[in-house]
Amino acid sequence: MDDDTQIRTKGRFDAAYDAVLARWDGVTVLETTSEFGVTRVHACGPTGAPPVLLLHGGGATSTAWSAVAAALGSTHRVYAPDLIGDVGRSVPGDRRPRTPADLMTWLDAVRAELGVPRATLIGHSYGAWIALAYALSHPERVNRLALLDPSNCFSGLRTGYVLRALPMLLRPNESRVRRFIEWETRGRSVDPDWLTVYALGAAGSPRPRVVLPKRPSTAALGELRVPTLIALAEDSRAIDTDRVAAAARGTLSDVRIEVLPDSSHHTLPGNEPGQLTRILAEFLS
Questions:
Q1: Contact, 119 vs 53, CB < 8 A?
Q2: Residue 141 and residue 236: Cα distance in Å, rounded?
Q3: pTM of this prediction?
Q4: DSSP string covering the chain
Q5: Are 88 and 14 in contact (CB under 8 A)?
Q6: Of 56, 82, 101, 161, which residue is most buried, by most CB within 10 angstroms?
Q7: How far apart are the C-alpha atoms of 32 and 114, rounded to whole Å?
Q8: What does residue 152 show for φ and ψ, rounded to 5 degrees?
Q9: Is the peptide bond before 100 cis (omega within 30 degrees of 0)?
Q10: Using CA atoms in the order 265, 233, 69, 274, what is the torsion angle rounded to 10 degrees?
């Protein structure tokens, strides 16, 4: 990508990112600093309300949570960071997270600097893996855990999904990313501004350095005592929902499974805010 194209791409990315934020009622911008850099955090809701930390999927940025966060913000203090080292407005420092342990150190630093002793964690896809890993390593700091179409938590990604994604990952461009999302969602409607954020983020340069997930062991999952909600997309092409549900029921001691009708992996979390926030609100209460 030449310099002029990169500048135009960044301009379009920023405009789409800001357009999504403009619809996020009550959002404020915070920053936390750690050895890994400066993390951009979007927050909303009463400052004294129970805290909720939202972790987005790979490349999705915190803007993916705008509709859900605004709804949860009526009863909770909501924080949504741009994952460090991924697409978005967090700025990596000289030391980048390279291992799952590094990511846990980063997230714990974000939590501490926000002044949150304990929080409910809600994660989607790759963010669900981060949320689960954090709950396993710091259970005393997690009140509840909600995992939305989680990947690499109870099973890996479907082979067909990975094969379809490979061209997009190896030679990313905007049109290829958009075709991939259209395929995975089976043509369902997706917020056009968020889709532009996702497509241009994936196609931009330099490529983000994402920590590869490590699936938790069955023994570790069996020891988790944090109340957990797993919300699965009925038509997900990313994961085998039946397999994930069975594995979760067979390992977690306190788990609730919900299947979201007429949804796919990439329509979550932003394009079914009504049914999703209803389920989350019930779980959080």
A1: yes
A2: 31
A3: 0.96
A4: --HHHHHHHHHHHHHHHHHHHHTSTT-EEEEEEETTEEEEEEEES-TTSPEEEEEPPTTT-GGGGHHHHHHHTTTSEEEEEPPTTSSSS-EE-SSPP-SHHHHHHHHHHHHHHTT-SSEEEEEETHHHHHHHHHHHH-GGGEEEEEEES-SSSSS---HHHHHHHHHHHHS--HHHHHHHHHHHTTT----HHHHHHHHHHHHSSSPP-PPPP-PPPHHHHHT--S-EEEEEETT-SSS-HHHHHHHHHHH-SSEEEEEETT--TTTTTTS-HHHHHHHHHHHH-
A5: no
A6: 56
A7: 7
A8: 60, 30
A9: no
A10: 130
- Tell me the pLDDT of the chain (285 aa) as tens digits: 677 777 888 999 999 999 999 999 999 999 999 999 999 999 999 999 999 999 999 999 999 999 999 999 999 999 999 999 999 999 999 999 999 999 999 999 999 999 999 999 999 999 999 999 999 999 999 999 999 999 999 999 999 999 999 988 888 899 999 999 999 999 999 999 999 999 999 887 556 678 999 999 999 999 999 999 999 999 999 999 999 999 999 999 999 999 999 999 999 998 767 889 999 999 998
Contact assessment for residue 269 and residue 194, using Cβ atoms and an 8 Å cutoff: no
The count of other CB atoms within 10 Å of the CB of residue 50 is 18
Inter-residue contact 129 to 153 (CB < 8 Å): yes
Give the residue among 178, 183, 237, 194 at the shortest CA–CA distance from 69: 194
Between the alpha carbon of residue 112 and those of residues 34, 43, 53, 108, 116, the distances in Å are: 10, 15, 12, 6, 6
CA distance 83 to 88: 8
What CA–CA distance (Å, rounded) separates 161 from 218?
Answer: 24
Tokens of 87: 């697409």
**How, if at all, do strands 119-124 and 51-55 pair?**
parallel
